[in-house]
Amino acid sequence: PSQNITWVTPEGGGGPNYPNM
């Protein structure tokens, strides 16, 4: 993924989930 994204864990995420996945 790009390094321009902000590392934020979405709801129900157990790790750094990427918005691309």
TrEMBL record:
Keywords: Electron transport, Iron, Iron-sulfur, Metal-binding, Transport. The keyword Manganese does not apply. Residues 1-21 are annotated as: Disordered. Residues 11-21 have a biased composition (Gly residues). It comes from the Bacteria. InterPro entries: ETF-QO/FixX_C. It holds the Pfam family Fer4_ETF_QO. One of its GO terms (molecular function) is iron-sulfur cluster binding. This is ETF-QO/FixX C-terminal domain-containing protein. It comes from Acinetobacter proteolyticus.
